[in-house]
């Protein structure tokens, strides 16, 4: 018993020293003759351009910011491997749309910096999806965001919105670097800082730390993902995630349809349909005009499956006969008040509501 602690110390010593003596753990007989640190500093590029705009690496503070982000990311092996794997699935679509819009291909790395190419990731401030849209910004750029659907989770739809927004920001600020900075901190904040500091060069502006790091995170993703081997990463092509093979069908649904019933009729199951359509928040396909993805080969069967399981649509307007309003997708009490000219306070009183929460299909009294 008394020898066990000593034996354990010997084992730990061998393992620990093996980490710092190259080759010891790989059976290299000359390793003990070459003692030195295993870790090496991450090399910095001599020049670098992002979206065709040179990064002034001759400025010490700029070079040090890039050094910080590149060192942190390059040593985060698990994260880098996941970047490289997910890129196989998502980059082809982003690259094609950027080419069609005449926008720099480097903008694809903004999605890496924002979300690591995850469609479901949410920030502490409420930004969501691959492109990390806040609710208001999402709605203002054409994405549906309500109780039934959140298109920030839809990769293709959110990509369209992000490219549209970035193009607007480029026209607003004159450079892609400033456009990306505004994407991070908001155009109002960036305009205010440019006006106060009397300079419109990103690298010379004093901005929130998150925004100051932002461009360098994007640049870091570019450096590593364009030359993974140069940073010690090797990923066989077959290990990249491939785009998901599916059919996309445009639909017009007048009343909610249970997803599980539709999936069963298609010969698949609920989980598959939900994973293909992460923008759908509940257990039903909500009403509206949008696109639904189904497993490849099943697209031609979707219309009949939806029709088979469709419910009777709720009335869309106030029923003058009984003085009630049927709540529709996207409705709020303030919207209903505007349409019916019944004050919000009166609506709450008439319907015994303690809050402004209402549900689709709910029938609200408009008068006593």
Produce the secondary structure layout.
Blueprint: H1 3-20, E1 49-50, E2 53-54, H2 60-74, H3 77-101, H4 108-115, H5 135-140, H6 155-173, H7 176-185, H8 187-197, H9 209-226, E3 246-253, E4 257-258, H10 259-266, H11 270-276, E5 284-285, E6 288-295, H12 299-309, E7 324-326, H13 333-340, H14 344-351, E8 363-365
Antiparallel strand pairs: 1-2, 3-6, 4-5, 7-8
Distance between the termini: 86 Å
Tell me the CATH architecture of the largest domain.
Answer: Orthogonal Bundle
CATH topology of the largest domain: Lysozyme
Order of helices and strands: HEEHHHHHHHHEEHHEEHEHHE
Which secondary-structure class do the elements indicate? mainly alpha
Calculate Rg over CA atoms.
Answer: 27 Å
In CATH's first tier, which class of the largest domain applies? Mainly Alpha
Shape descriptor reads: globular
Enumerate how many helices there are, as a single number: 14
């Amino acid at each position: 018993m008394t020898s066990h602690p000593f034996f354990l110390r010997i084992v730990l010593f061998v393992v620990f020293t093996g980490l710092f003596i190259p080759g010891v753990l790989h059976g290299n007989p000359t390793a003990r003759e070459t003692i030195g640190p295993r870790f090496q500093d991450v090399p910095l590029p001599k020049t670098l351009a992002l979206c065709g705009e040179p990064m002034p690496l001759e400025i010490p503070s700029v070079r040090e910011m890039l050094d910080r982000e590149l060192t942190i990311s390059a040593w985060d092996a698990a994260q880098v491997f996941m970047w490289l794997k997910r890129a196989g699935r998502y980059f082809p679509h982003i690259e094609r749309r950027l080419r069609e819009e005449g926008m720099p291909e480097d903008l694809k790395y903004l999605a890496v910096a924002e979300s690591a190419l995850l469609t479901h990731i949410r920030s502490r401030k409420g930004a969501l999806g691959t492109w990390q849209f806040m609710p208001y910004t999402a709605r203002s750029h054409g994405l549906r965001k309500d109780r039934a659907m959140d298109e920030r989770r839809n990769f293709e739809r959110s990509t369209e919105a992000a490219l549209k927004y970035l193009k607007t920001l480029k026209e607003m600020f004159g450079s892609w670097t400033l456009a990306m900075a505004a994407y991070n901190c908001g155009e109002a904040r960036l305009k205010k800082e440019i006006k106060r500091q009397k300079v419109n060069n990103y690298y010379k502006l004093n901005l929130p730390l998150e925004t100051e790091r932002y461009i360098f995170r994007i640049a870091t993703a570019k450096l590593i993902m364009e030359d993974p081997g140069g940073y010690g990463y090797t990923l066989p092509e077959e290990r990249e995630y491939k785009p998901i093979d599916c059919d996309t069908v445009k639909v017009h649904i007048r009343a909610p349809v249970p997803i599980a019933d539709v999936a069963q009729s298609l010969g698949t199951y609920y989980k598959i349909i939900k994973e293909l359509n992460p923008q759908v928040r509940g257990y039903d396909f909500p009403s509206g005009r949008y696109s639904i993805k189904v497993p490849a080969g099943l697209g031609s069967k979707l219309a009949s499956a939806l029709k088979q399981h469709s419910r009777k649509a709720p009335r869309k307007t106030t029923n003058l006969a009984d003085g009630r309003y049927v709540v529709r997708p996207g409705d709020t009490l303030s919207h209903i008040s505007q349409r019916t000219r019944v004050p919000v306070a009166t609506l709450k009183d008439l319907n015994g509501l303690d809050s402004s929460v209402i549900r689709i299909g709910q029938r609200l009294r408009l008068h006593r």
